[in-house]
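Final report, section 2: Outcomes. Of the targets proposed, FSD2 protein is the one most frequently requested by collaborating groups, and we therefore present its record in full.
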Amino acid sequence: RLEEFLKKEVDLELSTLPDFEERVIDVSEVEQLMNSINTIPAPCAPVINPQAPNAATGTSLRVCWGLFSDDTVECYQLCYQPVSNERHSDGQAEHTLKVKETYCTITDLLPNTQYEFWVSALNASGISPPSERAVYVTAPSPPTIKNKKIRSCENAALVCWESRDINPVDSYTVEL
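The predicted structure is given below as tokens.
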């Protein structure tokens, strides 16, 4: 039987044209809907914390911030510059750091100097508005004791020193 079947000439041509070959399906609305579902919004502005006690040395500052929302954040952009009394000073360069955590320790700063900090959050959709600006101050450099002015007697001592800082120092602690 197989031999007889193979000898026959078979006509494989269809008598009617299928409709689906000419039809174009528009999926643009579906694509837009899918894209809107997968898109995350740009984050809200972070909140920068005021300077914490013991968060400074003479050359470094630890800056912390947080978010009040459950935004998706990939990283933060921390900006800072020395505080200047002049409006526009070319010497006061703005520095920018990319940070993964909600804190950062900035080094190589000047002693007893005020720095202004602000932070923004970033994700795939964009960058948040910047936080409010916060002013942090590095610790003063140690004073220099004036050895030639030291005087002492049986019950007292006179020790004189001078500060090398430009900004005034609030107080000193003398340890014996």
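The radius of gyration is 35 Å.
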